[in-house]
Design a protein that fits this description.
- By secondary structure, the chain is mainly alpha-helical.
- It starts with 7 loop residues before the first helix and ends with a strand.
- It is 65% helix and 3% strand.
- It contains 34 helices and five strands.
- Helix 1 crosses helix 3, helix 9 packs antiparallel against helix 24 and helix 13 packs parallel to helix 17.
- It has a five-stranded mixed sheet with strand order 2-1-3-5-4.
Amino acid sequence: MWEWNQQPCCQEHTIYALSHPEDSSAQDLFSVVAIHQKRQPPASEELTAMRTQALQHFEKQHCDGEVEREISFRTECGLYYSYYKQMLQAPTLMQGFLGLMYDNKTESMRTINLLQRMNIYQEVFLSILYRVLPIQKYLEPVYFYIYTLFGLQAIYVAALYTTSWLLSGTWLSGLLAASWYVTNRIDTTRVEFTVPLRENWALPFFAVQIAAVTYFLRPNLQPLSERLALLAVFVSTFLFSLTWQFNQFVVLLQALVLFTLDSLDLLPALKVVLVELGVLCACLYLEACRPHPLPQRLALALQASRLYGVQIAGLLLVCALQFLNSMILGSLLISFNLSVLAARKLQKNLKTGNFLNRLGKLLLHLFVVLCLTFFLNNIIKKTLNLKSDEHIFKFLKAKFGFGATRDFDANLYLCEEAFGLLPLNTFERLSDTLLFCAYVFVLCITATAALAGALRNLSDPASQQSTGSTGKGAVSLKPETAYNLVHSIAFGLLALSTMRMKYLWTPHMCVFASSGLCSPETWALPLKAVRLYSPKRLCVLRYAAPILTLLYVSYKFWPGVMAELSELREFYDPDTVELMNWINSNTPRTAVFAGSMQLLAGVKLCTGRTLTNHPHFEDSSLRERTKAVYQIYAKRPAEHVHALLRSFGADYVILEDSICYERRHRPGCRLRDLLDLANGHMIDGPVQNDPDLKLADHPRFCEEIKRDLPPYTAFFTRVFRNKTFHVYKLSRNK
């Protein structure tokens, strides 16, 4: 028989020849290889057997390579990518679309509308684009997906560049912002490690929206430029909201920024009383019909109404496309904007009177708006019975010290490092590139100017300039700069409280610091303070500081960036590959699998099997189901775990040693500890247990089942095992 003892290059040519009998040149090459190995070419019967063997070998290598590539999309990334793959594998686009609308494989024993539950319109769009464009012969689907997302990051950098340029008036600041974004990529983006993550789709559109808002707030815009800017704000807000399930929380923070600026008169365009949405439509119609500019007060009211109206319109359009998604209907953003409109209607002459009078009105207005917001939000949620985001508020309540909690969902977030405080070493890395140093310098000067301008405006409203700067004399602040200042402070506080949110702050930090270094307003204040101000000194500092910073960053960090780009990295996880191949080869296509959320996302992507639970956690019934499935890592009897899993239709359960014997988290934060706490059981290990906790009546299921004792073998049969995973088949007759 033919032996596979050839050199690697010869073996590669042999496999190709055996698997392509129609290629005459390949067959000639096969004969040459055989002669080179001092063997005679095999007979036709032997050649047929060898071809079959070679095809099987080639298919196995291809299958292993595909699985290795797919399992690199970890946790929820794999879940999202699986829907892109599902759309491509559908016989027609319509069947693929209906398969997403009536899906019964993501959650066993349920049919759910994935387009309503999840933000996967981007996967739908890309799958349609891939099927329509003539690129199938040249580009594999996975690379089309990855390249598209990386191309979107180029738009991200371009938006940061544009925003910085708009704020400073020079392209040099845009170049510095882009350079800082790239050199600080560990803290500015996660796209290179988690490609399909929702934030990687959404944040580029958010950056475009910030650039559009910055341009929109500039004074003395032409009507056409104003309309185009507003259109860009609307489109980018819509796309941002469509691609990320946490859109309403980010846009809510932005609405709070606009509300703050309006209340403190830091934006002339947000100075006048907000009008209701009906008045907004009427004003838009009037403006379209008027041949001459609107009066100043009406124009300002119109501009304010537009920004709030764009937020509401974008979110409601997304809500319609997601089949009335419950998280959007019950979002605080809609309640907040409606409350602002109602409070403005109730409180007349809000911006009149002396300083103390206005300050009292402002505090009362803030109290009314907050009370109305929470009251309205509570009414909406109770009326529609909405619970999609309650785990987020439980997490926030526990995080900020409003009582300890044993809630399993909240503790899952509290125990993750990504949801903890921002580590101090983040500032060390940002300081190495001079980004944080420049940011603090610009922030102090700009905040001083903003505070002085706000106090002046509250004391004497007539002092506010109609030309667009808040304040006068040596202390002045352009409205677009005021917006970016408060935006940066708000998202900075968010990042300090929750490390995961730093990706909303650090890119804007690049923009704000670079634009400040290149802005004449930043240098004018300290120069005037030390009586050294002159136009020449101002010009020298304005350009010398960013140029020297660019030279430093390029000299110290650019060689490392280029070296990293030349590296080729390989993802290696043989145990998971072995598991996925076993599932594909040894289980029916209709089998239902239970296990951890992270692993099951990969099971769906690589095998297409049905799941009991998955990582998209924004559904109350799914959270309850996940907690029930996770009893496989708690102290529960075999019959109890079996009954729970069978109630969800599970045929197989996958146990992971990395969870059962976890050491990554501290005691009290391991998954098994969270389950013990939620079940009222004492936690194992050197921890201080609460007095009301009791010893469990049963040993830990994931440990005890491996002993193959009768109480467990009656319900579970081990069918697969390697160094990491244990798969058990559930009995059906119990």
